[in-house]
Amino acid sequence: MTSVTLPFPRTAKYGQPERDAVLRLLDSGHLSETGRGPTTASLENAFAELTESRHALSFNSGTASIHAALHAVGIRDGETVALSPMTWISAVTAVFQAGGVPHFCDIEPDTPNLDPAALVGLDNSCSAVLVTHAWGVPARMDLIVEATGMPVVEDCSHAHGARYRGRPVGSWGTAGCFSLQESKAVSGGEGGVLVTSDRRVYESALTLGHHPSRLAAELTHADLLPLVQTGAAYKFRMPALSAGIAREQLRGLAARSEAAEQNLAILAQVLRHHDAPVSFPALDECSSRGWYGTPLIIVGPVGDSAALFDLAVARGLPLRRMYPDWLRTPLLQERDLLQRFWPHARAYSPPSPSEFPNYYQARRQTFLLKVPHVPAADYMEQVGTVMARLLDEVTHLS
Ligand SMILES: *Cc1c(COP(=O)(O)O)cnc(C)c1O
Predict the structure, then answer these.
(1) What is the spatial distance between Cα 378 and Cα 266, in angstroms, rounded to a whole number?
(2) Can you tell me the distance from the alpha carbon of 80 to that of 95, in angstroms, rounded to the nearest whole number?
(3) What is the pLDDT of residues 202-214, one digit of tens each?
(4) Which of 286, 297, 294, 296 is nearest to 260 (CA)?
(5) Atom of ligand 1 at shortest distance to CA of 179?
(6) What architecture does CATH give domain 253-397?
(7) In terms of DSSP bridges, do strands 101-104 and 80-83 run parallel, antiparallel, or are they unpaired?
(8) How far apart are CA 320 and CA 302, in angstroms?
(9) Cβ–ligand 1 contact at 84 (below 6 Å)
(10) Bridge partners of 288?
(11) Where are the domains positioned within the chain?
């Protein structure tokens, strides 16, 4: 078999529960909860529970939640935030939005995540760390927290419900941020959630863009009280429709993740059976992946990786394209572009790509596999057979 012939198994993204939630809101006559209204509170409580955190705060995007988290952990005035380039662009631009400047660090050789070793010695030059659990693989949070005295913000936008060493992602750092954009494992259409167990961080995150009625109800810290009538008025709160939909989406998350994990296990077994030259980032038994595609690492030479990607897609393999290389994107190369948006960005100088051997290796060697979130044994067996055959052909060519 050379091509995948079965259709990608999926169920409708939104079902009856989401429909009912939307209709309930329309019938209530209120789609905007300026305070911590019932729909907002229900979603926030569910995220606090999911991440075993004291507080959760909803936003109208994941990007806004990262901006607020960086502000809340104290990023001001050109301070530097360490992060890896293996993330979505708005994790990088959120650093500028918060008034900071990114400092890029390489990833680990065997995972798509920030290398804890890259943080050693940065405490004097950086003020915070932003860690993305890339493609659902939990970052080594114990080592990251150990390697630095800086506050750590987790970008969990690929990793809803994932755990690292028994603890939910989002609960390891000072704050965790989740995007609820539609392509993510929990969708509100659009939206974001910040979780933290630090009351001060929660209140400070509120001041960026939540409504004064919510600020009045919740702010207690003396230095934040002068903001009670205004905040910074960025207008970051989540529409109630998004919160209502996301609340329903969250109920099925565990079942979807479980199905995806089983699908991946079936694929891995087929690939092993064919001795295919691939590996998956290893997780210990107390850790579990989140789902936004999953990385599959090709072991050995791949030649032209863009051509291989095109060939794989032509054979029907369900692959997600790797993000562009932000280190070389015009916005982060040309200072006048950056300064159009953020005058303080004059403090940023693009690093040399030679400082990121693992990141570039991963870009060449990684397939981002879309895994169905419903049981799909036949499909996964077909994908495994087609992939093994393709890799066999390619290896024999090179
Ligand atoms: C989607 C995403 C974001 C941004 O979230 P939005 O809700 O689209 O603003 C940030 N970081 C990562 C890693 C993402 O995947």
Answers:
(1) 9
(2) 8
(3) 999 999 999 999 9
(4) 294
(5) 7
(6) Alpha-Beta Complex (3.90)
(7) parallel
(8) 17
(9) no
(10) 163
(11) 16-251, 253-397
d(CA 13, CA 5): 22
Q: Residue 135 gets which letter from DSSP?
A: G
What's the 164 CA to ligand 1 centre distance in angstroms? Answer: 20
Quickly count: other Cβ atoms within 10 Å of residue 178's Cβ. 34
Predicted local distance difference test score (pLDDT) of residue 394? 85
Q: Which two tokens stand for residue 28?
A: 């209530």
> Region 260-265: what's the mean pLDDT?
98
Backbone angles phi, psi at 116, to 5 degrees: -55, -35
**pLDDT band for position 244 (cuts 50, 70, 90):** very high
From CA 269, how far away is CA 383, in angstroms rounded?
12
Ligand 1 probe mutation, 90, 95, 133, 184, most atoms within 8 A of CB:
90
Which atom of ligand 1 lies at the shortest distance from residue 181's CA? Answer: 7
Question: Cβ neighbours of residue 42 under 8 Å, at least 6 residues apart?
Answer: 243, 247
For the chain, the straight-line distance linking the first and the last C-alpha, in angstroms and rounded, comes to 21
Architecture, CATH, for domain 16-251? 3-Layer(aba) Sandwich (3.40)
pLDDT at 14 over 80: yes
Task: Report pTM.
Answer: 0.97
Residue appearing with tokens 């010695």: 121
Q: Is 312 a residue whose pLDDT tops 90?
A: yes
Q: Among 66, 95, 97, 181, which residue has the most ligand 1 atoms within 8 Å of its CB, making it the best to mutate?
A: 181
What's the CA dihedral at 25, 28, 32, 34 to 10 degrees? Answer: -130
Q: Where does residue 266 fall: left (phi above 0), alpha (psi -120 to 50 degrees), or beta otherwise?
A: alpha
Would you tell me the crossing angle of helices 305-314 and 377-397 to the nearest 10 degrees?
140
Tokens 């400092």 correspond to 103
Q: Is the minimum distance from the CB of 90 to ligand 1 under 6 angstroms?
A: yes
Q: For residue 255, what are the β-bridge partners? A: none
Amino acid identity of residue 205, one-letter, is A
Average pLDDT in the 218-223 region? Answer: 98
How far apart are the CA of 87 and the centre of ligand 1, in A? 9
